[in-house]
Write a structure and sequence with these properties.
The structure holds three protein chains of three kinds. By secondary structure, chain A is an alpha/beta fold. Chain A is built from 20 helices and 24 strands. Helices cover about 35% and strands about 25% of the residues of chain A. The chains are: A alpha/beta, B mainly alpha, C mainly alpha.
């Protein structure tokens, strides 16, 4: 199937396993030179494992990864490192290492024992800094940079390695839309201007479509689809890859495909009328901070009862802090957080907890805990030391299990569940409290699109059927627009805009809040606006540059070539 | 990735409703506690038959209730029974303390002997012994040392709250500091006294009296019910501070209560028997393996299992070895290999 | 590097030049500390006498005899052990990417102590020349055990896991050591001074046996510094840069055992030098291990001798073992590191 993509890097009948558990089986894949190839797939489909094997970090249990026809596991490590550069997932620089120092360490494969840095080393470092635009920051410690800058510094390190092929493992995780844009634009430029072959793993399909020449979709360790973005991003194929129905529309600017997962629920606005909304939250002149740092300088906003309100904003804009203040997890320095017209700190502890259910970001379950016990723990605010388990508790737990579809999981340890199941179990714990207000902090982090939709559908259901007031923080704008009745956009601790998604989400606002150029179109199924970042033109006259650039890369790595020819 | 065997676990649970009072009772845990108590009684009776002056089992039982021969009654009631009771109570106190600390710190590998609480007691006690003071006050003094160490660790760890990871590291630092001070004392005094002090620091229930039993029993009587009732909020605290606060718990109050009672349990045990290692560590794991995650019931089971373990270790050390060894050495020698295995497995799952 | 000037520091000197000067200053300071170590103690000796004892030895002078027979050996041992412990600590911190790397935290000290006590107990061996082999064996076994236990599971050997495994193995071994000591008071008498960790009363002959190992260890670690720099970026990155991380780890573990085991054999279990020195040095050099290791070679002995001198002075005419002093100073540092945000977040 892949013979037509014969690049220098390819896999042959590759089988990868952790212990006796195969993750990727019999995979033969060619990765074309001079192109950006992105591997996508649901959580745990083996995409990161595959990338690790391509980078020689993992030994295949069968088959091999070939570079120029040689199995890379039989090549010396340094030899491979002169051909393949890798940006590992979640890289952490030691405290105090400067950008320049970090980039210089990327020259390791070109240096030998006790040899002082050569002129080549110096030039490669300078070029890498220049390409990534990190020259002005070269003396800054890496751990003090912003997320996007830090990722750029690490890419610079991989560039200094001066390899024709660059492998990137989830380079945009933890980044907000602006920083994602920053990193992916750089990746695209490296490919277009330098002719580097890029292979990366992304979990966001639309980002993948925006910057890739080719997309490989994996499911259960096998290739389901492999081709140009518009060939791969088709509804029926995405359903097979992720197990969720999707619509695919064309990007208005460059007609590249954009996928929108469908919600299980009916169209928006179909609220059961007889449910009376309960629980209204209000922030009044809220000032919040940690230590000496002030995060929110004074914020007033309103979370109306019975609606789903979502706060969006760039990383570190204070959105989670506001949610925590409303959930009484943070004490405000000034101002008030109010629930139904009364300061949240004036409620008694359990009384407040009976009214507001908070689900903090990525909660960690204790080992060995069963789902049933997890959900039962959610009843704590209703209990007393002499009344630890009443009939009402038992009924509420049953209802919560039923509502989240976790009844079948009740006897399983939480630690053994998949990401989506675990998040559902935690949601059940929060629902078991039967509080009229739900506060959820990034409930979809680490989940793939199918699980994201699954969890948010549950939240919406609780809102529609029981009139629960929901306040969420989400960093994914598409999801925020889809599920919110009301959107609050924050920047630097202040509310920039608030209203329905259609009112709030304008290209100007995206530019103002995130600093990213974007188109906003209407989503066919739900009518919610859809924010599509613009990554330059799709077919800029870069093709010429690709070839020229590739020649340049090859000319700069004579040793690699020489070795190839000898063997 | 999905081929990990799916574990289904259900526990037989009985619900008890009495008007406003409502409890959930784990039937299996209750059965285990009853079984453990029976084993404990048999083991205790059998241990009292052993020694340089063997006494038949029936005589032991009669003497215990005050119906035996006078010479037997003296040996059983004044010599052997206090020692047996002390071993059982010390084991129960240490095991409960271990369970409390492991729960609070949210790390199954922590116990008072690792984070410096035992070291506090040891330092003060060694000082007391090597300077040749009256040993009748030794328990009081050692308790003071343990409590001071615990408070010190808590205060130093405090930075707007007590983060579990920080508590472990601070505890290990305090342990090293106090250990160095103890070593210093040991090199500065004559060898005879140092030898005595060394014996104390390994932990032993040799020559304990009814007075010790009363102190231990009193502590257990007060602190065990308290900790059992605190297991209910602890269950929620284990999800992390944010979740617990979100559920309307005063996290620091609960945590302080747990830490104080844990310290009290450990300090009293150490003050009487010296720092007996590994009991606090291992027993909660055994209890959890038998009965599932820590609840009030499992905590009681932990106490019972701790009593059995320490009594068995003391019996072995006293009667079944060529040289009589203090119980602390036996628990370390027996518990250690198992413990390392356990540590490896727990780490592998973390 | 030399062409780049750091705007933060100065416009006139390159950072390399400044660090070089700093290194020279450390060397000079070390000479001064060594001389102080010859001078101070239960009896104070004039600088002139200390100097003469080294270069114009007059055997009839009591003071000079004291210097030659007592102060000189402990100073030499302090220099060797200090450098070895500090470099070992820095190497551990680099390979485990863990700010709490220290030979004593890794169980090396208690492993060596246990091996030696066992040897004395069963073999009646009291010749301190033979300590070294047992110290090596014990150190190697204990550190391997600690690392094995700590690195199990996700995330590898995190600070908390490593510290815990080390503390537990140390507790385990020391309880076994205690058991042996209880069984035989004579063994206790032989080893109790060794157990305290002290530079006093050590034989120089035994140190000469150890010295080649220390030198080999320190030299090897210095040669490995560039690899350590790359390794500190994380395993995946280091491997992607073409490093055989397993080999580097094994080599550096071997070097650590040479250094720490040798130092323990020569001077007994001295805790926290390996923890403290790299942290102190890092404030001067930044995160580059080439400089950290070079500075550690000089600052390590400086600190150890300083602690030793302090031990001689605080309870004069008696002495406080240097191991006790370093623990008193080092444990608070451990607590400080624990309270710093970076570790707390792990």
């Amino acid at each position: 199937m892949n013979s037509e993509h014969g690049g220098r890097l390819r896999t042959g009948e590759l089988t990868l396993a952790y212990g006796s558990q195969p993750v990727v089986t019999d995979l033969s894949l060619g990765l074309p030179d001079g192109q950006v190839t992105t591997i996508i797939g649901a959580n745990a489909c083996g995409k990161s494992t595959l990338l690790r094997a391509l980078a020689r970090l993992m030994k295949p249990s069968n088959g091999a990864v070939y570079f120029d026809g040689q199995a890379i596991h039989r090549l010396p490590a340094k030899e491979v490192a002169r051909r393949l550069g890798l940006l590992a997932q979640q890289s952490n620089a030691p405290e105090g290492v400067t950008v320049e120092d970090l980039v210089r360490r990327g020259r390791y494969p070109h240096q030998s024992f006790l040899q002082p840095p050569s002129r080549d080393d110096h030039e490669a470092v300078e070029r890498a800094l220049e390409l990534t635009g990190m020259q002005p920051l070269r003396h800054r410690p890496v751990d003090e940079l912003s997320g996007g800058q830090r990722q750029r510094a690490w890419i610079a390190m991989a560039l200094a390695q001066d390899t024709p092929v660059l492998l990137l493992d989830e380079p945009t995780t933890y980044l907000d839309i602006a920083h994602q844009h920053e990193v992916l634009s750089l990746v695209r430029r490296l490919n277009r201007e330098e002719g580097r072959t890029v292979v990366m793993v992304l979990h966001d399909i639309n980002e993948a479509a925006a910057v890739s020449d080719r997309i490989v979709a994996l499911r259960d360790g096998a290739v389901l689809a492999d081709g140009a973005p518009d060939e791969v991003l088709r509804p029926e194929l995405l359903e097979r890859v992720f197990g969720v129905e999707c619509d695919v529309v064309a990007h208005p600017r460059d007609s590249r495909p954009v996928s929108i997962p469908r919600s299980r629920l009916a169209r928006r606005g179909s609220r059961t009328p007889e449910v009376e909304p309960r629980g209204e939250l209000r922030a009044h002149g809220l000032r919040l901070g940690y230590g000496k740092r002030e995060v929110v300088p004074g914020l007033s906003t309103e979370i109306p009862a019975g609606e789903v309100t979502v706060i969006v904003g760039a990383n570190a804009c204070g959105k989670s802090t506001v949610l925590r203040a409303l959930g009484r997890l943070v004490e405000p320095r000034a101002g008030q957080a109010m629930l139904d017209g009364r300061d949240v700190h004036r409620y008694r502890h359990r009384e407040f907890a009976r009214r507001v259910g908070v689900l903090p970001q990525s909660p960690v379950p204790p080992p060995d805990l069963l789902v049933e016990d997890l959900v039962a723990a959610g009843r704590y605010p209703h209990q007393r030391w002499y009344r630890q388990w009443s009939r009402a508790d038992a009924r509420a737990v049953e209802r919560a299990l039923a509502a989240t579809g976790t009844e079948d999981l009740r006897g399983r340890p939480v630690a053994q569940l998949s990401g989506g199941q675990r998040q559902r179990a935690f949601l059940a714990m929060t629902l078991a409290r039967e509080a009229p207000v739900l506060l959820l902090d990034e409930p979809t982090t680490f989940l793939d699109i199918a699980h994201q939709v699954e969890v948010l559908d549950l939240v919406r259901e609780a809102n529609r059927e029981r009139g629960v007031t929901v306040l969420m923080v989400l960093h994914d704008l598409a999801l925020a627009c889809r599920y919110a009745d009301r959107l609050i956009a924050m920047k630097d601790g202040a509310v920039v805009a608030a209203g329905t998604p259609a009112e709030v989400m304008t290209p100007e606002l995206v530019q103002a809040v995130f600093g990213v150029e974007a188109c906003v179109v209407e989503n066919g199924q739900s009518g919610a606006p859809l924010v599509l970042p613009v990554y330059g033109h799709r077919d800029d006259g870069g093709r010429q540059a690709v070839l020229a650039g590739r020649a340049a890369v090859e000319a700069r790595t004579p040793r690699t070539r020489a070795h190839t020819e000898v063997t | 990735m999905s081929a990990v065997p799916i574990v289904e676990r259900r526990r037989p649970v009985a619900n008890v409703y009495l008007g406003p009072v409502a409890f959930r009772v784990d039937v299996r845990c209750l059965a285990l506690i009853a079984g453990g108590l029976a084993v404990l009684a048999v083991l205790a009776a059998w241990t009292m038959t052993l020694g340089s002056f063997p006494i038949p089992l029936t005589e032991v039982v009669k003497s215990t209730v005050g119906a035996g021969k006078p010479e037997h009654e003296f040996i059983v009631r004044e010599l052997r029974l206090p020692r047996v009771l002390c071993a059982v109570l010390v084991g129960a106190l240490l095991a409960t303390a271990g369970a409390v600390f492991q729960g609070v710190v949210r790390n199954p590998l922590v116990s008072p002997d690792i984070i410096g609480i035992d070291a506090g007691a040891s330092l003060v006690a060694v000082w007391w012994i090597v300077t040749g003071r009256d040993t009748t006050f030794l328990p009081v003094v050692a308790f003071g040392g343990a409590a001071a160490a615990a408070m010190g660790i808590y205060l130093v760890t405090w930075r707007g709250g007590v983060a579990p990871g920080r508590l472990i590291l601070v505890g290990i630092g305090v342990n090293a500091l106090l250990g160095a001070a103890t070593t210093f004392l040991m090199t500065r005094y004559p060898i005879e006294r140092v030898s005595n002090a060394m014996l104390w620091t390994t932990g032993s229930v040799y020559a304990t009296s009814w007075a010790d039993v009363r102190v231990l029993a009193g502590t257990l009587g007060v602190l065990l019910p308290l900790t059992v009732s605190l297991m209910w909020p602890l269950r929620v605290l284990q999800f992390g501070d944010d979740t617990a606060k979100g559920m309307g718990m005063r996290v620091e109050v609960v945590r302080l209560g747990l830490l104080l009672s844990g310290c009290g349990l450990a300090a009293v045990a150490v003050s009487i028997a010296g720092p007996v290692g590994f009991v606090a560590f291992v027993v909660p794991h055994i209890a959890r393996m038998l009965a599932g995650p820590m609840t009030g019931g499992v905590l009681v089971l932990t106490a019972v299992a701790g009593g059995i373990l320490l009594l068995a270790a003391d019996t072995v050390g006293q009667h079944f070895l060529p040289v009589a060894l203090p119980v602390g050495v036996v628990t370390a020698a027996l518990g250690a290999p198992y413990f390392l295995f356990l540590l490896y497995r727990v780490n592998a799952r973390l | 590097m030399a062409t780049v000037t750091r705007p933060v520091t100065t416009a006139r000197f390159s950072p390399a030049a400044i660090r070089g000067l700093g290194l020279a200053a450390c060397a000079a300071l070390l000479v001064v500390v060594s001389l102080l170590s010859l001078r101070f103690g239960a009896v104070s000796i004039s600088t002139a006498d200390a100097w003469d004892a080294l270069f114009h030895y007059d055997a009839s002078s009591y003071d000079q005899a004291v210097v030659r027979s007592l102060r000189l050996p402990r100073t030499i041992i302090g220099l060797g052990a200090g450098a070895a412990l500090a470099v070992a600590g820095a190497t551990i911190q680099a390979t485990t990417r863990n700010p709490l790397g220290d030979p004593s935290i890794l169980g090396i000290n208690s492993g060596a102590a246990f091996a030696i006590v066992t040897a004395v107990f069963f073999g009646g061996m009291v010749d301190s020349h033979q300590y070294i082999w047992f110290a090596f064996t014990g150190a190697l076994a204990a550190s391997a055990l600690v690392y094995l236990v700590a690195s199990a599971g996700r995330g590898g050997a995190t600070p908390v896991k490593l510290a815990l495994a080390g503390a537990i193995v140390a507790a385990l071994l020391s309880s076994w050591t205690t058991a042996l000591l209880l069984l035989d008071e004579q063994t206790l008498d032989v080893v109790r001074f060794w157990l305290a960790g002290s530079l006093a009363g050590r034989e120089l002959d035994a140190f000469w046996t150890v010295l080649p190992f220390l030198v080999a260890g320190v030299a090897g670690a210095l040669l490995l510094s560039r690899q350590l720099n790359v390794l500190s970026l994380g395993d995946d990155t280091a491997r992607a840069l073409g490093m055989n991380t397993t080999r580097v780890r094994i080599i550096s573990a071997g070097l650590v055992v040479l250094m720490a085991g040798g130092a323990v054999a020569a001077a007994g279990p001295i805790a926290f030098i390996g923890l403290a020195v790299p942290h102190i040095v890092r404030t001067m050099t930044g995160p580059d291990y080439r400089w950290i290791l070079a500075y550690s070679v000089l600052v390590g002995p400086m600190l150890l001798l300083g602690a030793d001198i302090a031990g001689r002075l605080v309870v004069r005419p008696a002495e406080l073992q240097v191991g006790v002093i370093t623990a008193f100073c080092g444990a608070p540092l451990l607590i400080l590191i624990a309270r710093s945000r970076r570790v707390a977040e792990l």
